[in-house]
Amino acid sequence: MSRSEKGKGNSRSGGNAKPTSGGHASRHKHAESKHGPNRGGKNFPVKLAMWDFDQCDPKRCSGKKLERLGLIKSLRVGQKFQGIVVSPNGKGVVCPNDLQTVEENGAAVVECSWARLDEIPFNKIGGKHERLLPYLVAANQVNYGRPWRLNCVEALAACFAIVGRLDLATELLSHFSWGLGFLELNKELLETYQKCTDSESVKAAENAWLEKIEREAQERKKRSEDDDIWMTGNVNRGNAGEKSDTEDNNSDSEENPTDSEALHSSKPVTYDSLGNAIYGEEEEEEDEDEESDSDDAQDQFLNPSDKISNPELISDVRGRLNELSIE
Q1: Between vectors from CA 193 to CA 192 and to CA 199, what angle results, nearest 5°?
Q2: Domain 16S/18S rRNA aminocarboxypropyltransferase Tsr3 C-terminal: where (predicted)?
Q3: Sign of the alpha-carbon torsion through 116, 117, 122, 128
């Protein structure tokens, strides 16, 4: 074999060939793995896809973890998807009637930040079957307990559960430590949606659930207000063993009547033409007392001998006066 033939052989076999164009072959290989066929198609029963806009923390991004596991493929902007697309741009909600589309063409999501939705070119992504998700509560570590704030894997799992493929939802969520908690947290809601048929019936069930939540919130608020009132005691009565100021005043007035009541309660009262009270008899009695007192005083001065009841004392006094008299 000639040296030139040898070189051609090495070139065909790729033995010592070096990449050209500044590593173009390496970049092409990465792009093919990123946007090519789903490498995890054999691992997961249905197709999974996402449009990744690199807005999330890679360490917390559920979509990127699914991609690392080989379960989902990333789509380019401008590339459409034939299956169910869970997107804020959807017109109807996911419903059990979407089961066939999911099983035949899979499901896709938009991997982005809730805070940066206005940056997403929704007109350049999506597909024929864009759907919203009905009311559900997030169980992920970032938005736990918040309604609507589902991440990528929760959105895909919700889609599978609503169409009746709870097995797919469980398998997908099992790759996350908190994942199965999403199904438990929304168990009653998901079962309610599974009993529906089309998008309209799911929407009606969602509205009924939201009304129920509102009623329960109002009832809790009312009970809380009632509990606060009872904690303060009976506002119409004082504390046990204590009397109000009004009761004290009333009891004092009953036990210790005022001077005017003490003076006038037993006296007959007459009224003049203007309605003024006149205690006439009392004044007359007082006048009579004064007159009798003055008469007694006059008697004392006019008849001092009346006060001397023993006549022997009078003769003794006269005898002593005679002895003292000067002849």
Answers
A1: 145
A2: 84-210
A3: positive
Element (H, E) at 312: helix 311-324
Per-residue pLDDT band for 173 (boundaries 50, 70, 90) equals very high
Strands 107-111 and 48-52: parallel
The torsion angle over the Cα atoms of residues 313, 314, 316 and 321, rounded to 10 degrees, is 140
Q: What share of the chain is helix, strand, coil (3-state, %, to 5)?
A: 55, 10, 35
142-148-149 Cα angle (round to 5): 20
Domain layout of the chain by residue ranges: 27-215
Contact between residue 131 and residue 92 where contact means Cβ atoms under 8 Å apart: yes
121-125, 169-173, 225-229, 319-323, range with greatest mean pLDDT: 169-173
The model carries a pTM of: 0.58
Instruction: Print burial letters for 156-178: b (CB count within 10 Å at least 16), e (below 16).
Output: bbbbbbbbebbebbebbbeebee
Q: What gap in Å lies between CA 276 and CA 254, rounded to an integer?
A: 25
**Residues at the annotated binding site for S-adenosyl-L-methionine?**
62, 110, 133, 148
Confidence (pLDDT) at 242 = 53
Residues facing 131 on adjacent strands: 86, 92
Q: Which residues are annotated as a binding site?
A: 62, 110, 133, 148
For the chain, give the mean pLDDT.
74
Instruction: Quote the CA–CA distance of 18 and 51 in Å, as a whole number.
Output: 33
Structure tokens at 196: 């529906």
